[in-house]
Amino acid sequence: MGNFYESMLNSGMGRKVLSTVGLPTPIELNRYSASQATFLEGNVLVGTSKNGELISDIVRNLGDSDANIFFPSAAITANEIVKAGADHSVKVTQVECAKGMAEKFNVVIFDASGIEDGEGLTQLYTFFNPIMRSLTSNARVIVLGRPHMKAKNGEKAAAMRALEGFTRSVSKEIGKKSSTSQVAYIEEGAEKQMDSTIRFLASAKSAYVAGQVVHVRKSNAVQYPNWHKPLAGKVALVTGASRGIGESIARTLSRDGAIVLGLDIPPAEADLNKVMNEIGGESLLADISSKEAPAKIAAKLKEMGGADIVVHNAGITRDKTLANMPQHWWDMTIAINLSAEEHINNELLATQTMNAGGSIICVSSMNGIAGQMGQTNYAASKAGVIGYVQYMADELAEKQITINAVAPGFIETAMTDAIPFMTREVGRRLNSLSQGGKPVDVAETIAFFANPASNGVTGNVVRVCGQSLVGA
């Protein structure tokens, strides 16, 4: 949140003025804190559709948290939830769910995998209708289903795809309380790979991720690592690491235990060295679009034991309308934002510098999804990143490597601070959470993709945008 708006929110008179002119007064987002022992505290309400297939693994996950687990006493599926708790030695408590109930919930998780057709979607209404006013601020709503394109028939496919429209709409209803709603599609046989997704979406690490879809595929089962140091011992390359979002990515991966190789161009050497010195990382200077860069990067990573995590963050903008854009601006933007990532990945794979079980994460943009006036080059490059990620997911899965992308929306950086005041203030509000995100929000999502337990999460594009109204 910008300094001016923040100062207004922090005074009674300021809030009154903002209310008078119709501007939102958003609730501050809760973000990760090392003081929280586990991924989740507070009250969690769990429910399942008839014949839900994921409830046992939901309860198993929650058993590793400090949460109080409740389920609706009137649910026809109550016995299934009680059995799941007994199977995993997890205490679950019945609660009478009704409008005006005393209990408040920090997280609500519903297993919708058993819904078979349109009529079965009534179970969403029956479960959620009484408890929507019982969500706390900064609450999380998570709905789990099966991939609709792998459904046994059209009716099942329709029911599963409906979950996306449902959760996006819920997210817009509860966004004013800085609460979010997501759907995760769990491939059959990937139940043990969904742990990292549930824990990320239920935690404060997903503060600015709203109205999103995560797909989880079958992969080798990996025990969830330490919540605070999930990347311990991993080697991570972060391009464009000297400042802004790249700096936050480097600091967050280091916080989570990774050894970071930060890369940037020679003019950024002083800033890059400062960041790397503070986090105990190493610096590498290179123009990623040069012919020499891929081999130089691979050689350095080889010295460090190979790469476990590669984050393609470096990028540029060269904005002009297409009619006025010089060709070298077009060529430069595509070369740095898209082609360089492809060339570096090809080199790391060809030289076996990427370790098995590794993760590649690309930074796309909301403008790559929605387009933007005067950014045909930038939007094309960032849309190309999405296509690359989605195509490469199957190919890299054979090498036990995941690849995903984040698409940031309005993130508070020095670049956005330079935007004219009114344009900046409007941009901050055009999302369900009515506020801009922070670089750490992008970094947390990247850390989720990099988590070894996320080895079933690949080919995803997650928007870190507070559910932007543009491109949604």
Fold and architecture overview:
Its EC number is 1.1.1.100. It is a single chain. This protein has about 475 residues and is of the alpha/beta class. It has two domains: about 40-215, 3-Layer(aba) Sandwich (Rossmann fold), CATH 3.40.50; about 235-465, NAD(P)-binding Rossmann-like Domain (Rossmann fold, 3-Layer(aba) Sandwich). The protein has helices spanning about 5-10, 10-20, 55-60, 80-85, 120-130, 155-175, 195-200, 245-255, 270-280, 295-305, 325-350, 365-370, 375-395, 415, 420-430, 440-450, and strands spanning about 40-50, 65-70, 90-95, 105-110, 135-145, 180-185, 215, 235-240, 260-265, 280-285, 305-310, 355-365, 400-410, 460-465. The strands form two sheets. The chain has a seven-stranded parallel β-sheet with strand order 3-2-1-4-5-6-7, sandwiched between helices. Helix 3 crosses helix 4. The longest helix has 24 residues, at about 325-350. It is globular, with a radius of gyration of 22 Å.
